[in-house]
Design goal:
Length: 255
């Protein structure tokens, strides 16, 4: 299996490459990478079509701005697409949807096994604990270089709580807590400090009790290992949209 990495010079992309090249039992080989600057000695190109042409699966941890171009290139080449970026606009969302009709596409806000399980628990708690009785707050902490807030993972947790409650997150999310809390709102708080890999907590509080679900990543390799596991799992599957819960739980595709 030939695995390409879009965003290979970034933190996670570089870790994916290192894990792939340093694991003797890995069922795949690194076919090359995609970055803003080419490096022929490392098989790094700037055109997604070039990477797609020599890859069976591409792990995309680049930038949401590159999504539309990547979707066209990977769809045309017929290679599977593992997406680890977040923060898509409407055009990128549409490009991903159209690509999933042609090739297998897996989207993940977070590749860690534990966090994947936490998302399902968040949905279950959202369904079981009424919004009228339990306030939902999500706290996330990352390194100081992280640009987006709330993190894509925090938003995914919020989406699963909202799904359990039968609501759309967009209508009830609150990231500015300067005023009164809205009824049924899901609140988000973000902290940035040092080189913290990633910490996420879902806190559900009523007038009489509180439950907290937390996940803490100690090493970024957990994300790289998860991304590679997703690539191995996705290879050879039919066109459709998949997620990490399917990788760990063998669920049916979304479409």
């Amino acid at each position: 299996m030939r695995i390409g990495i879009a965003g290979i010079t970034g933190r996670l992309g570089a870790l994916c490459a290192a894990e792939l090249e340093n694991t003797a039992s890995a069922p795949g080989i690194l076919s090359g990478g995609l970055a803003r600057k080419a490096d022929p000695s490392r098989r790094i190109v700037t055109d997604p079509s070039e990477l797609a042409a020599c890859s069976d699966v591409v792990i995309d941890v680049s930038s949401p701005d590159a999504t539309c171009a990547n979707a066209r290139a990977f769809s045309s080449a017929g290679c599977a697409w593992v997406i680890g970026t977040t923060g898509f606009d409407a055009a990128a969302e549409d490009a991903i949807e159209r690509a999933s009709a042609v090739i297998p596409v897996l989207r993940a806000a977070n590749f860690a096994p534990g966090l994947t399980m936490m998302l399902d628990l968040a949905r279950q708690l959202g369904a079981a604990l009424p919004a009228s009785e339990y306030d939902a707050e999500i706290l996330e902490t990352h390194h100081r270089q992280k640009r987006d807030a709330p993190s894509g993972t925090a938003l995914a947790i919020g989406e699963h709580v909202a799904r359990g409650r039968g609501a759309a997150l967009a209508g009830i999310a609150e990231t500015d807590r300067s005023g009164l809390r809205g009824e049924g709102a899901i609140g988000f708080a973000s902290l940035r400090a040092g080189q913290i890999v990633g910490e996420h907590s879902l806190i559900l509080t009523s007038d009489t009790e509180q439950i907290t679900l937390s996940h803490r990543a100690f090493d970024r390799r957990v994300f790289a290992q998860g991304a590679l596991k997703a690539a191995y799992w996705l290879y050879g599957r039919s066109a459709g949209l998949y997620d990490m819960a399917m990788v760990f739980g063998s669920q049916a595709p979304k479409s």
